[in-house]
Structures are given as structure tokens and as C-alpha cells.
Amino acid sequence: MQNPNRPYHRTEIDLLFTKVKAQMHKTALIRGGDGIALYTDCYTGETLRGGDRYDYEHIRSAEAVFMMYRDRLSNSEIAEVVNCLENVSVTLRVINQSKGKTRMEDWLNSGSNLTTYKINTVITTSSLKKADSGINRKANSILKRKN
After folding, report:
1. How many Å apart are CA 10 and CA 78, to the nearest integer?
2. What does the pLDDT look like over 33-59, one tens digit per residue?
3. Distance between CA 147 and CA 90 in Å, rounded?
4. Do 108 and 86 contact (CB within 8 A), yes or no?
């Protein structure tokens, strides 16, 4: 049993995030085929190339996932959950900075974010479902391993 009141801590999350981003970049370089990384924005569907202003993104924030599982998982186990491939993607830097730690559904319903940032709701909904599914799958896998 983990301390359900321990504060949010992201050292392990960031260490694994760095490794996941490096692997994603390698794959994107291969996908690009010309030595330039090729991504698809997880919220707009836009094509992003190396040199564009994009960020790697936790679709569900690291803090939200940490708080959800801190009573059952260690920091390193939470890092695995947060950084599962389904929860890490790429989006334009302006979207990532605007969204911050805000839950995507709340951010979409706030002001004119949907139109300002040209969010594709079908793609975004798919990204959110995929992230939630990956997070649940990874957490359940770790919890089964512990029992």
C-alpha cells in the first residue's frame, strides 16, 4: 500500500518521458523518410515536421494520473502508466502551453479554444479514448503483477 497522501512528484515521470520522447523521435525520423521527423498533431490532425513548433504531450496530465494512482502504485510505476505510448503524443506548442495541466475536456469548453487552435474534435476524442484505455491497461497490468 502506497501513501495516498504523498505529494505529486515527477522525477521518475520525467526520466521515463525523456526516453519515450527519444524513441518517438527515432520512429518519426523513419516515418519522415528524409531525415526530418514526421508527426500528426493529436488534437488538430495537422502534419508536423521536425523544426515545427511542437511539444511532446501527456494527453492526460502527469499530475492527474499520479493523483489517481498514488494510493496503489509507486512513483516509478506511475511513471510507466503516465508514459504509456497511448498517453504520449505530439501537439503544437501553442496548444500545449495553453492547455497546461487543464483536463482536455475542460480546456475545450473554455472560451474559444476549439476555434482558436483549430481543434478537430473527432481526432481529439479518439486521442483521449486511446490515452484513457492505455492508462487503464498499463495500471491494471502493474496492479495484477503486484498481487
Report:
1. 9
2. 999 999 999 999 999 998 899 999 999
3. 34
4. no
Residues 6+ apart with CB under 8 A from 3: 70, 71
Quick one: pLDDT band at residue 101, thresholds 50, 70, 90?
Answer: confident
CB distance 47 to 91 below 8 Å: no
Rounded CA-CA distance 65/9 in Å is 11
Per-residue pLDDT, 141? 97
If DSSP codes are grouped into helix, strand and coil, which group holds residue 47?
strand
Asked if residue 88 lies in contact with residue 59, where contact means CB atoms within 8 angstroms, the answer is yes
What is this structure's pTM? 0.93
Domain boundary assignment for the chain: 11-146
Give the whole-angstrom CA distance, residue 142 versus residue 6: 20
CA torsion 127-132-135-136 (nearest 10°) is -150
